[in-house]
Amino acid sequence: MKNYEYVDNAYWESDDRSVLKCIKLSKQEGKPDNQKKKEILQFHRLLPDGAECPNYKEVVSLFGVARIDEHTKERKTRKDREGKEKRAIHDQRKKSAELEELYKLKLQAFEIEEIKNSEDRTLRSKLRRSKSVAEMNAVTSILIAKELGLFGAAE
What we know:
The protein is an alpha+beta fold. The protein is 54% helix and 14% strand. It is built from five helices and four strands. Strands 1, 2, 3 and 4 form a four-stranded antiparallel beta sheet that branches. Helix 4 packs antiparallel against helix 5 (133-147). The model has no long low-confidence stretch (mean pLDDT 92).
């Protein structure tokens, strides 16, 4: 009787089916059956001396090529989905950080005396509604220049 078993989730690590990954659960002496040693193993079809790997053959004969193909396809689909989810979360966090930074910059802009004391409600409103740092900087510059009288004759 074997002191180990393979978990039914083996998958191909390479497209040509020459490398196989699987999980092996081994019984440990003096421990209950529910406390098995878990090993993630990788088997190559051929050993360095050119002979076939007996462990590779054992896993393939145990689960079959079709079942391993199915696991490989499921794993690839799952990994692709997880990658998309991680990218979406990353993009969302990045966007949130950018908006937070923009908000802080707007607060700093409204602390500038010329902007704080300005009565030009249109430009102040545009400053509040700006959606990027570049837009905020442009409106801030225009508003300060207007308050300093740099646009020619004062109104």
